[in-house]
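Researcher: Here's a chain I'd like modeled. Treat it as a single chain, no partners, no ligands.
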Amino acid sequence: MKKWIALICLYLVQGLPHGFFGQAMPVLMREQGLELTVIGMLSLLALPWALKFIWAPLLDRFSIYRDEYRRSWILLMNYCAAALLLVIALQPVEFWVQQHLGLFAAMLLVLNFFIATQDIATDAMAVENLKATERGIGNGVQVAGYRVGMVLAGGVLVAFFGWFGWQGALLLLALAMVAGTLPLWRFQPKAHVVDNQPLWPLWLAFFRARGAALWLLMIFLFKFGDAFGTQMIRPMLVDHGLTLEQLGVILGSIGFAAGLFGALAGGWLVSRVGRQSALLGFLLMEAFALLSYLGINGQDLFHIYLAVVLEHIAGGMATAALFTIMMDRCREHCAAADYALQSCVVVVSGMIAGALSGFSARALGYDGHFVVAALLCIVALLVVWQAIRQQLIAAKPARSL
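Model: Modeled as a single isolated chain. Structure tokens:
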């Protein structure tokens, strides 16, 4: 039980900064008149998530405190992130957005570095401490915790933004980042076995594995359509006249419940129906969920609620399935490096998709944009099917490589 509580809390606090700065900030910036293209380019601040594979092997080799290869890195990075949030809280949002946008972007880049490094250690700890048969529900818990944190910060906190204010919101985020580490003090992860082989041969072994090129292509494309479409949801709702309070209620209550259900149900179903069926089914659901945003207007709140519910459920289920097969692909002696490499491919995909999303929405309109996003999901589905045909994805829970 200590293991599950620690993992839930760590993934939840990872979602808090992303929820606030990745989901709430686009709304705040749009209200202050920033262009869609600028908002879309904000996804490039996630660069540390795309490059974390570079320093991930260091977390397999070195510990901050006597053989604490996982916990020491997690604690240090969480506390550094909390301290940086307090620094950002020293000035109002108008100061950062209107006068020092470049400096603000640099600070968010550093914040992403801290959280991405925490994620490397947390993922490695999960790979090493979850049995193969636990990985489905384990990744459901991972995605659920992350989405709960993201929705709490990007939805609930936004709904009460007028009451807390900018500085109050950031203080709450910093406090949560610290509180989320408390269960880790009571959980002792399995001892990590250090492999002192040179790093280059270790990397080559991953890329030389059977079907490595197709595997990486599948991971790159799996969430591309979803990231491409969802980046423009909040700007679209703002343009249709929804207020911050309305967005907070929709995303903080309806989105919260749907995302939590989707992640947990997806993790449970992966273990029941198998990896292959879960990947194909959940990806198809994502395509239909993106199409549900067609024809939305600010007066039809039921349509908005329905689309948000479908998107959160499908997104949570698909992500849980993807993360499960990524764990299956990890080698036990270098779990941090292997998982980080795969997750970086997913992040790069999301960054590229998010950066292009603003141009698509401006050129095609919101409806045309979501049709393209759905078609991108279908393209990914075809690649998944090819990976299944080549037997790269186990139908049932598999042991680590």
